[in-house]
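Hi C.,

You asked whether I'd gotten around to modeling the 502-residue construct. I have! Everything is below, sequence then structure, no commentary in between.
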Amino acid sequence: MQKQRTGSGVWVVLVLAAWSAAAVWFFYSRGWLFYYGDAEAHLNIARRILDSQTPGYDQIGTAWLPLPHWLMLPFARSDAWWRSGIAGSISAAACFVAAGAFLFAAVRRAFASASAAVAATALFALNPNLLYMQSTAMTEAVFFAAVLALLYFTMRFRETQGWGMAAGAGMAAFAGTLTRYEGWFLIPFAALYMLSAARRRRKGVAMLFCALGALGPLYWLAHNWWLYGDPLEFYRGPYSAWAIQGTQPYPGKGDWPTAWLYFRTATQLCAGPGLALMAIAGAAASLARRVFWPLALLALPGVFYIWSIHSSATPIFVPTLWPHSYYNTRYGLAALPLLAVASAGLVAIMPSRMRAITAALVIAAGTVHWMVEPQPRNWIVWEESRVNSEARRAWTREAAEYLAPRYVRGSGIITSFGDLTGIYRQMGIPLRETFTGDNGLPWLATVRRPELFLWQEWAVAMHGDAVAAAAVRDGRYSLEKSIMVKGAPAIEIYRRTGGNRG
């Protein structure tokens, strides 16, 4: 029996790996890996740890948690993989495979049914929105690997009471807390489960989980305190969600029913209507089979996002609700594992002889929406990335094409990090050729006193930013090109025409 389980698990991993690689190739061959500005930024953060005027640990930054960047690090070293985006795809795709494998193992154990496990894994892995995310340098696949590993190891701990399962659960929780902030939200609930699952003499084993899971948040608070002097810099600093959103109103802010409506709508658009409806009946079937913990754990990321919409300056905009636009629509994917596991309950309640055919029907019902309308424009996450990146992609391409034949290696570019970094990736020049705010005090001194410190031949700025102001104030720079794209700030390229001050 154990050999059979091991063999089926190997096949699941192999199929998921082949499917993941095919998806990466599909999106890569069409040039879609950098449609999300966040994907560009995540990969460039990994790159700058190695390639910067001030490389090293400090380049990890503050707002985004570090694990996805660490996973990309070995691949971002390659110039070709960095420029193509494949450096971000490799680690995300590997995590997608791991997430699917843990999902299969957890569902098979929860329902005692391989057919139910196949159904849940297929519903998860066939979702085109997730397939796009796992092909880019985004964090969804990494987090899914952590939370589904957490589900598997906590279930195994209830059975075995072993140190190994507690350590596995703790490491999964640790990884989740260093990937996305909803991982922090899971910790107290998972700790309560572990402590309740531990028998009287095994409470100490459960405490191992608590200790490991708490390390992630404690490390990140210490990181922010050490580098920025504020342990909550990630929460209230200039790059935080609070700073980005400010005090602007949005649907769901301070309004629980509206927050639920927007998250629910994003979930339906990300998962497809068939899966969303089927999961309701599946949840009832799962509860009838006394499968409680998987549904409870996997519901928590959705609860976190509803709370975030209500209380933490995290709006979600979807095209079917006012203001009929795209913003953070991809957060609806957080409920995909929950919907897949709940739907598997419909397979598990059937007699053994009918489970295989029921699994096929469940998979068909959950994916028919994507089969009937296979165009990428119907994949809400991809469409969000396309719509929101049109202006950025246009000015990035134009700026790179202008600078590439004119820039001489070593002459230097002062610029901001952020979206402008895509210009230099497309040009194929190392990031150490650029001088940015991420280089710390020397950059700050330069933009404040350009007459003393500014020497780079080129300055690339967004209109009105600190670099543009420094170039104008310096007096030796002339505006060579201004790139105007509808829906985006003007991109200004300055060149030093005056000599050095004696």
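If it helps when you're writing up: The two ends are 82 Å apart (CA to CA).

Thanks,
B.
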